Amino acid sequence: MTPQERVLTALRHEEPDRVPIDMGTPVTSIHVRAYVALREHLGLPRRQPAILDAMQQAAVVEEDVLERFRVDTRQVFLKPSRPWQRLAEGLFVDEWGVRYRPSADGNYYDMCAHPLAQATLADLESFPWPDPDDPVRYEGLAESARRLRETTGFAIVLNGFGEALFGLPSWVRGHAQFYMDLVSDTRFVEALLDRFLDFALRLAENALDRIGSHVDVVRVADDLGSERGPLVSPQTYRALIKPRQKKLYDLIKRKSGARILLHSCGSVRDLIDDFVEIGVDALNPIQVAARGMDTRELKQRFGDRISFWGGGCDTQRVLPFGSAEDVRREVARRVADLSPGGGFVFTPVHNIQFDVSPEKVCALYDAAAQYGTY
């Protein structure tokens, strides 16, 4: 099987020759410090890695590493209109006006200011919304997708719709105020969400007009779960977020026929039926340490209707604190839970963090190949 066939077979809930493996999206990557150590451990050429996600300090995973770990996907990315801009005293600002400062340990960047924190309904009209039609966003996109399709057999994943309709609005508004808006000022929050929906729809239209015939999977994201349950009530989600997600996902499928991969961290078990209703084909990351996210139970209850793209190893406890043998046992368990009948793409729960040794990274992906054979 080609890698593309392997991924698409799994997403049809059929068993391919082995479980497909993903690495390299902004939520299936590796911290830049761990990546440098990994390349050295593998004896690969030393070079300063490119940063895929500045806030998380996730690295762009290069082809030699993807080949070493038998990765079946290749990523294409939309770009921001402008990269982060450096401000005074070590602060940065993104294209939305959200400001960031280095975390206390220096390994990440934390949000510290939100441009619409004090905004009223009238202020939404004068806010400098980023332009979804900016050609910078799509530079090289068609060429990259066409090259991958014509010269390789990999499954192509389009990235660029991260936190589009829940996370990003909360970053621009500020988390506390946004959550209060959801229950106390629905007029404002609906106007805010419609602005983000319009942006996402235009972004998808522009991107898929260029590469819709080449892309296999479109990764979207909205982190809707805490470790104990959904961040908002299912009723609030269904009233305000779900209808807008459906509009975006419907457009993506009309323009491409691609599968929808939704990234939503935390305990989202109570929302999986809703995700299925609006056209989500696969769910990432399957945060196995969160309430109700047991891999065996999820597979039994939902495995015929949605695929699981992740959950291959607990990144909160096992990967950072366990031994290499603990990692192998964890992978064997999760593959056994999630792989029967297809519907599973292997990747750990989230990005591999800075303190994970290269030996454990190798154990992780080598175990996936070992235990993932059908």
Low-confidence stretches: none
Question: Treating each run of at least 4 consecutive H or I residues as one helix, how many helices?
Answer: 14
Give the overall average pLDDT: 97
Structural class of the secondary structure composition?
alpha/beta
Evaluate the radius of gyration: 20 Å
Which architecture name does CATH use? Alpha-Beta Barrel
Distance between the termini: 13 Å
User: How many independent structural domains?
Assistant: 1
Shape: globular
**Main sheet makeup:** 7 strands, parallel
Strand residues, percent: 5-15%
Strand arrangement across the biggest beta sheet: 3-8-9-10-11-12-13
Number of strands: 13
* CATH topology-level fold name: TIM Barrel
Helicity range: 40-55%
Order of helices and strands: HHEEHEEEEEHHEHHHEHEHEHEHHEH
The CATH class designation is Alpha Beta
Oligomer: single chain
What are the salient characteristics of this protein?
374 residues, TIM Barrel, seven-stranded parallel beta sheet, 41% helix, 13% strand, globular
